[in-house]
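I'm stuck. Please check this protein.
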Amino acid sequence: MGQKTNPNSFHIQSRVNESPWTIFSKSEYSYLVKQEIGFTETIQNFFEKNNLIVKQISFYLHNESNDVLLFLSFFPIRGFRKFEKSETFLPTNNFLSENLFSLLNSMGYKTEKRFVFLNLEKYVKDFSSSKDEEKKIERKMSLFRREAFYEPGLSLFLVLLRSKNNASLFSKFIAKYFKLYHRSRKINKFLNFLQVFIHLIVSSSFLTSKPLKGIKIELKGRFNGVPRSKKKKFESGRISLQTIRCPVNYSLTHVSTSYGVFSVKVWICDE
């Protein structure tokens, strides 16, 4: 009898001792981890309501002074409502202090509130290596120029090229616009955009940045409200799921629509 392992857990790298709460006792550690999970969900819900996709939330604790540093990276999306710069929707220090830091202070730990926010859209534009590269990408996607997902799609293209571990960000991006267009005729245009998107980011020769090795997208649900669910797959490049030599970043996001719940799966091979 062959023994099989879960491929998702098989590709996850070891994360031993990454939690900042390991220096505390067992009872304090379990309590802090539980509160951290709830605090993280609160932050994510707050950002999603303001059309900001959270990529990473990390806590860092100074061993000597017990000062806590919160690092948060996010990606703004448009097409749902008009708003100004995404920085105006950042949570205030009071919003954060009422959650995690009040918890730590109540337990007797003196903390200093420090926050680091990273706008990924602004980051890739400020540190763009080639303006000619951006213009070529815009010409390749000119068919979707009038669509709401065009500009954030271009920014996301640069984010995927210049950073790693973006499967969660990409799946949330797809889920957000899929929920918006699932009853509209624009859903087909959005799916065509995804096909062009992953083809360009994997196989384009004009990219100065190192292209991705492979991307795979799988959507599953009751498309157009049909009785049975179907799968739609978009794949470009190579995704090796049977070996650990190729690091694969995987993410699963669920979308609640009027036709039921859809699943959005994304696999990205960076190297």
About this structure: The two ends are 34 Å apart (CA to CA).
